[in-house]
Amino acid sequence: MRIVSWNINSVRARLSHIERFLKEEQPDILCLQETKATNAVFPAVFFKELGYIYQAIHGQPSYNGVAILSRVPFCEAETIKYDWQNNQEARHIGIELANGVRLENVYIPAGGDIPDRDINPKFGQKLDFITRMTKWSSSLEQPTILVGDFNIAPLESDVWSHRQLLNVVSHTAVEIAHLAQFQASHDWIDLGRHFHAAPKRLYTWWSYRAKDWTVSDRGRRLDHMWASPSLIDKAIAHRVCESCRNWIKPSDHVPLLTEFRF
Questions:
Q1: 242 annotated to bind ligand
Q2: Would the pTM count as exceeding 0.90?
Q3: What ranges do the domains of the chain cover?
């Protein structure tokens, strides 16, 4: 089973990219973040025509939005939407696969520009979001795959310059500490670093501000795929599909693909 996670940065604006990727890579399940579309306008028929007939969608206009599109059946009765943001934003959708494994797709808030919750409420919301996820995770018993845009690059080698980004949101010590607590709450396995150990370069996001992202290569590893410890022997490969960032008018994030043998 091939599972993909991709912050698409507007699903309707990237349909040609999505079609190309699905035809080239043939994943079984596609998890999207930042779809920026309500359920009513989400291109459900487009995905069904490509074979992704099983769909779990949690949409929102203009911002946020998550979706899981699958070629394999899942238990519709077990679709869950957690409000870890505590304000009804569409930032999570979860399903249960036929084999009993949970698949959770999350879009953690970016957190604004200033890493101070007193000055910047968005930063506090981000930390509180992770705290709520940690509470959920600490009592988690079902084998689970967690994917999405975490908006945190935790390791020094997860950013183009640790020294220059120490006080930049997504790589601050307080965010990294919160994410570490979350990871420890379930002993989550970071699949990216399981297959590509630090300090190997492993970026998933490049700013639109760079005229040529390949030359500056100022990337960050903001997107992640984690798994319960009991599933680690089921994961057999993981890669970042970096070439997608070079397509015309791409998302600033690229897809992550993990292959499992269940």
A1: no
A2: yes
A3: 2-260
